Amino acid sequence: MKSFAIASALLALALSLSGCISAPITLTPQTEQRLQAQAPIRFLLTFDDGPSASGYNNPTRSVMADLANNPVLPGIKAVFFLQTEASRSGGSSRGRKTMEREFAAGHVLAFHTATAFHTNHRWLSDAELERTLSQGAADIAAITGVSPTLVRPPFWNYDRRTFAAYQRHGMKVLLTDLSANDGKIWGFNASPRRRENLIRQLSVVRERIALGELPTVDGVIPVVVTFHDINRYTARHLQEYLQILMDSARIDGLKTAAEPFYTDHAALERAALARTVKQASEEVHLPGVWNWVWDADSK
Predict the structure, then answer these.
(1) How far is CA 108 from its chain centroid?
(2) Domain NodB homology spans what residues (predicted)?
(3) What would the DSSP string read from start to end of 121-156?
(4) Is 288 left (phi over 0), alpha (psi -120 to 50) or beta?
(5) How many CA atoms lie within 13 Å of 134's alpha carbon, on the beta-carbon side?
(6) pLDDT on residue 287
(7) For 294, what's the count of Cα atoms within 13 Å in the CB-facing half-sphere?
(8) Shortest CA distance to 274 belongs to which of 102, 156, 150?
(9) Residues 21-42 as b or e (16 or more Cβ within 10 Å = b)
(10) If DSSP codes are grouped into helix, strand and coil, which group holds residue 191?
(11) How far is residue 13's CA from residue 289's CA, in Å, rounded to a whole number?
(12) E strand segments, 10-131
């Protein structure tokens, strides 16, 4: 089953870059009418796998700079899901300093892994899972003063055992509504159909919003978006991505809040916690083919 999971994950990544993106779901008059009763959306930005430990044009620090200063909305705050012990991420001195900068800038530090590599938590023994969760929580608490409350399992994948372990450590699982498909595989780190991809994905989320399936927090509906701050392509194009998200909302018939991104740490954290998975058995909606991958793996 483990080998099937690896093959499935690689297939999912390959498909995400293949250019096979369906057309957006058509906005019907019925959906348009239902949307009028819903609150505006606000994009909740998240970044996986960082921080970068690169000493050359560090992409994580470039992302932070563009979040702080951009033509769409200066001062954007994001959730960074960290690899706290990976040598090319948080396990380096530069990585630790970058995490400190992220926190000082008002971003939310959350847990991704505390293994040497980007390892699926389901493949860890009970003892190793417990050790890495404790280590990652300690790494983040050393910077923020408190243990992290948010976790994103690598590859979005968890089961009852790992979910229960997260709960024991006070961590709640945050998945995503939109994925930029910018995870680097086999040296390829571009996103040639980034605009079509996000427009299509947001049209799917729009249908759920129209049905009242997403919660309203502080008067807005948080829509979770995932990028990878270790990806230099993402770092170079982040300001473009921000504008693409705004364009996608307009094209898909969604109204955005006066502040379309989060600029306050506390509001960001409240919104993220409201979007977390409440039970391991809860039906989740992952973008692209990821639901199919993990549904097949569980059978």
Answers:
(1) 12
(2) 41-257
(3) GGGS-HHHHHHHHHHHHHHHHHHHSS---EE--GGG
(4) left
(5) 6
(6) 85
(7) 17
(8) 150
(9) beebeebeeebeebbeebbbbb
(10) coil
(11) 9
(12) 41-50, 79-83, 108-113
Contact 143, 109 (CB under 8 A): yes
Residues facing residue 185 across a β-bridge: 188
Contact 159, 280 (CB under 8 A): yes
CA 110 vs CA 84, 143, 147: distances in Å: 10, 11, 9
User: And the tokens for 168?
Assistant: 């024991």
Domain positions in the chain: 2-12+30-297
Averages of pLDDT over each 10 residues, the chain, 299 residues = 47 49 92 97 97 94 98 98 95 96 98 95 97 98 98 95 98 97 65 88 98 98 96 95 98 98 98 97 84 54
Q: Please report the pLDDT score of residue 8 as a whole number.
A: 47
What is the pLDDT, as a whole number, of residue 173?
98
Tokens of 187: 């040296």
Length, in residues, of the chain:
299
- Pairing between β-strand 150-151 and β-strand 178-179 as defined by DSSP bridges: unpaired
Return d(Cα 144, Cα 209) in angstroms, integer: 34
Is CATH 1.20.272.10 what the domain over 2-12+30-297 is classified as, yes or no?
Answer: no
SS3 of 66-87: HHHCCCCCCCCCCEEEEECCCC
- CA 249 vs CA 11, 46, 200: distances in Å: 29, 18, 11
Give the residue carrying structure tokens 């709640």. 172
CB 120 within 8 A of CB 127: no
